[in-house]
Amino acid sequence: VGDFVETNSHYGKVTHMDLRNTVIETTSGQVVFIPNKEIFDTPLINFSKKKIRRVNLSLGVSYGDDLEKVKKLTLKVIEGLDMCLTDKETTLVYDEFGDSSINFTVRFWVKFSRQFDYRSARSEAIIAIKKAFDKEGISIPFPIRTLDIDPKLVKSLKK
Fold it and tell me: Which end of the chain, C or N, has fewer beta carbons within 10 A?
């Protein structure tokens, strides 16, 4: 009771347990009664057990940016956040050449006792990275879509 768990496609805080059911309050406020039989037959992830949680944050930068500079700056920004655990390694790996950006994932650890700790850490990291990238002229691109309209269609619509 009191732990954050995920089981049977439900995520939330365990509020009550008895012989028949485990009661979970989701982060959206719903109360879910899960028969213990289903919990015994299904994996249960306990996010509270270790009191820490890793944050995985996916981003992308412009093809024109210096990737070594991006990596150094991002790691410095994340490691400078109060909620980042300094005794755990912060990592950044480039994942792929995307349509509009070179994509990467930065991973860092935070203390975890409630869902807000995790969500707040993600939010603060996004704000800090965006601010640092803006200051250093690093671009976070967004997809650009071009519409190509058949001239014959335009002509037929004018009639």
Answer: C
Alpha-carbon distance of 125 to 102, in angstroms, equals: 19
Model pTM score: 0.76
Which among 40, 108, 34, 33 is positioned nearest to 78, based on CA atoms? 108
Spatial CB neighbours of 15, under 8 Å, sequence gap ≥ 6: 1, 23, 24, 25, 31
Q: Distances in Å between the alpha carbon of 154 and those of 23, 87, 145, 158? A: 60, 63, 19, 6
